[in-house]
Amino acid sequence: MIEIIKLENGGHDADKSVRAFVDRALGDGYFDSMRANKKHLLEWIAFQNKYPVGWAAISLDEDVPVLQSIAVHEDYRGLGIGDGLVKVRVDFLTEQGYRFVRAHAWTTPSGACNSCRLLERNKFYCTDTWSDYYSGVRNCPHCGAGNQCKCLAQVYCRSL
């Protein structure tokens, strides 16, 4: 059974298996970089028998909260974990009184976007496309570029 839990205390004591899972899915160093660059980061982990199979975060650093990256282990895709991670974060923001949320979907130069359908299924709509949004990313997991990533960000929004 999949269990989704919120990391407490900003998740700063996440064990090595969570860090390794996120870095494997989103690029080497992503986990620590996200924590270093976001003051108000809240994280959720999906576990299967104490093994991390999903991770997602919210940044509250701006006026409108941002659903940050989401990662689902390739062997567990199609089981609803991504939808569960979106739902738990949207529910949290609704309970906190937020009225609007934004998300950025990583889109490769070829147009592939793993998160676009997930966000659209969960009542988000695309409002804009930003180029060079990820240009400072270390070791892009999609295009393989270092600090010269050319992947696009599809900007999605949703009312709560």
Describe the overall structure.
This protein is of the alpha+beta class. The protein has helices at 16-26, 30-37, 81-95, 114-121; strands at 2-6, 41-48, 51-59, 66-72, 100-107, 125-130, 152-159. Strands 1-2-3-4-5-7-6 form a 7-stranded mixed beta sheet, sandwiched between helices. It is globular.
SSE blueprint and pairings:
Blueprint: E1 2-6, H1 16-26, H2 30-37, E2 41-48, E3 51-59, E4 66-72, H3 81-95, E5 100-107, H4 114-121, E6 125-130, E7 152-159
Helix content: 25-40%
Number of strands: 7
Q: Taking strands numbered 1, 2, ... along the chain, how are they ordered across the largest sheet?
A: 1-2-3-4-5-7-6
Kindly estimate the percentage of residues that lie in beta strands according to DSSP: 25-35%
**Unreliable segments of 5+ consecutive residues:** none
User: What is the SS-derived class?
Assistant: alpha+beta
For the report, how would you describe the main beta sheet?
7 strands, mixed
